[in-house]
Amino acid sequence: MNIDSIKNGLVIDHIRAGSAMRIYNLLGLDELDCTVAIIKNAQSAKLGRKDIIKIDTVTDIDLDVLGYVDPGITVNVIRGGELVEKKQLSLPERLENVLRCRNPRCITSAEPGLKQVFFLSDRAGKTYRCLYCEAKAEK
Amino acid sequence: MRNLIDIRELTTDEIASLLDTGDDIMAHPGDYRELCRYKKLATLFFEPSTRTRLSFEAAMYELGGQVLGFSEAASSSAAKGESVADTVRVVGCYADIIAMRHPKEGAPLVAAGVSPVPVINAGDGGHNHPTQTLTDLMTIRREKGGLGGFTIGLCGDLKFGRTVHSLISALARYDGVKFVLISPEELKLPSYVKNDVLRAGGCEFRQTAADLAEVIPELDVLYMTRVQRERFFNEEDYIRLRDSYILTPAKLINAKSDLTILHPLPRVNEISTEIDSDPRACYFRQALCGKYVRMALILKLLEVTK
Q: Chain A residue closest to B81 (CA)?
């Protein structure tokens, strides 16, 4: 299957197979006017199968969200048809409006207008906690 | 401008300084009588409380200040659906400092984010209660002569008991404090407190569901807590667990002669009234410390010095 290569844009690569639509939604890519290609179950030497998202424009994307969903993802920046930057991701210290606190005693359950903020409490265990009530994030 | 939302925001030196000031106020109350003249404390209590609210109010009055506020959500604009942030922005126009209790965890943090005046967390759900912790620390320091090198038993509701979580966070920073966590299985200390505070701090601790009489001989401090009806969604669970641990004179038979018995109060039945006259019962002296340490905190956050 052929997908046109992009001149100026982003390639989100090494997405765990099956996760592309989640990332598409989390990054709000449906709001872009440019061409966005989602490639599912592509062959990968590293992962066996992987998903790829190609975005036909250089736009700001929330690397923190990607880092949370899968720090193994790489983001390639293409300009003039050339790879100019490969961004490595890591678990972000803070996540805003990515997760929802499930603790019924948390203030966010009573005031839905509040920003949902989680902080990284344990990098090794990939544990995030609600900034307000410290409840552990449910994945 | 400083707030106090979580006891972990205070350095060990700052805690020592607050306790020193509390002790000094207790010894020389006259020196502090006018320090907050023309200042106003707003007590925003979205949940009922007796001693915390009254001790804040007494603290401000004894500093020469004045108090305004409400004692339940029903008599505030929260009943009309006003957000915590809006309430605090408005009250911040009328008061110099705010003490807030709220049943929802994190509400004082939200308040501190928008308030034009210092905010003190006076208890948020089952989460934090830093001024109770300062009270506990002041009492322990006065009774034990220091804040390290003792074994403390925490007994009862260790799951929802916010006073327990805050106290453990504070004591974990002192050397030689051993923790014995005594509770029924359903009310065990949450794993995040065990992992992030006790294990991360290298503290010695053990959990037990044993009878109080069995563990009491090794304790220097016993911190009793109430199983709180308001933390349960299910009345049956509350009734089943309410009577898990009750301290009676019989259970004190093998206790140390200098044991310090603490309770954040109010108690229901978890400490028999027969123990009130025992010199080891320190919970009413603890309530007194609460007023003085809150006076010290108000002075610190208002940046008022003697």
A: A111
Position B165 confidence tier, pLDDT thresholds 50, 70, 90: confident
What gap in Å lies between CA B57 and CA A14, rounded to an integer?
A: 60
Chain A residue numbers touching B129 (CB-CB < 8 A) = none
Query: In which residue are the tokens 């966070």 written?
Result: B169
Using CA atoms, how far apart are residues A61 and A75, in angstroms rounded to an integer? Answer: 10
Question: For A8-49, how does the pLDDT look when each residue is reduced to its tens digit (9 = 90+)?
Answer: 999 999 999 999 999 999 888 999 999 999 999 999 888 899
Q: Does A105 touch chain B (CB under 8 A)?
A: yes
Determine, for residues A111 and B84 on separate chains, whether the beta-carbon distance falls below 8 Å: yes
C-beta atoms of A107 and B106 within 8 A: yes
Average pLDDT over residues B234-241: 73
Amino acid B231: pLDDT: 61
Q: Is A114 on the interface with B (CB under 8 A)?
A: yes
The 10s digit of each residue's pLDDT in B265-297 is 988 889 999 999 999 999 999 999 999 999 999
Across the interface, whether the CB atoms of A133 and B84 are under 8 A apart is answered: no
Mean pLDDT estimate for chain A: 90
What structural domains and CATH numbers belong to chain A? 9-88 (3.30.70.140), 94-130 (no CATH)
A1: pLDDT strictly greater than 60: no
Domains of chain B in sequence order:
7-128+289-301 (3.40.50.1370), 130-287 (3.40.50.1370)
- CB count, 10 Å around CB of B228? 17
The CA dihedral of B22, B24, B30, B32, to the nearest 10 degrees, is: -50
**Mean pLDDT for the stretch of residues B121-127:** 91
Residue type, A103: N
Instruction: Report B:200-259 residues touching A (Cβ under 8 A).
Output: 233
Interface of B with A in 262-301 (CB under 8 A): none
Task: Please judge whether A133 and B102 are an interchain contact, meaning their C-beta atoms are less than 8 angstroms apart.
Answer: no
